[in-house]
Amino acid sequence: LIKKIKDLETAFYLKSFPGTMPEGLQIAFAIDNQSRKQTRGYSTFADQRISTFYRSLAANFKKHFLVNVLYYAGKPIAYEIGFSVGKNYFGSQIAFIGEYSSFSPGKILLIKLFESLSTKHLKADFGSGDNFFKRLFSSGNKQLYKIVISKNVFIRKYIASVCIGKNALFNKMTQYRKLYGMYRSVKKILGK
Q: Among 63, 57, 68, 71, which residue's Cα sits nearest to residue 91?
């Protein structure tokens, strides 16, 4: 079992492409086209204007624009795009090919990216927003703002209570990570 795990670990590797290498964005576009985001209808690069914008960012930010690609057995399966500014790295986009979801490629990519960033003495910042990955890799969070816009008082109260419930659920999930991991495994086995 340990040998299988070691073999699996060496099958994954991360390669970073600066903005001066257009190959990185081409790989990211191809992965995004096969990603879970694409199948769910919110692909980052489905709109040609967004692709053009990212090409422009790559051309102008050059070495400060990075496309990080995770490979499995020589095949690119996930990407992450970000910017290095001073001693900080700002993550922007991430996606992976859906058929590899059983490997948790997003987590693997981020772990390998953090290892790479630490050798360059860069601090990671993945911006605002709240998701499981951000809570998994950070020691805390800070609410920057909370705005609910609606003329209807009921809707304002409902949205505010849903936000409180979501935060409580996230906190419980991070408190009981192993239990949540077992739940996901059982769910995957049952195919639901």
A: 68
